[in-house]
Amino acid sequence: MLLVDAGLRVVAVEGVVLTFTDFALADRLVRLTECAESAASAGVITPEESSRWLAELDDQSRRGALVASVGGYMALGEKPL
Q: What is the DSSP letter of 61?
């Protein structure tokens, strides 16, 4: 854990789920466009599939139909005395 590696004592660790209904916000925070372009560059999907997926997410957002989430952890540490 980065906190321990930095010499801090772990005070709390909590699971967090962020939920988005706005594509622009989700894209800024989770980098959806960057991920789609990277997948296309790696040949996992075609550039057309990448563009189509991003356009679908944007359309869902505009219609109020987008619900996306990402899970992670939040940790709190303190410097030992």
A: H
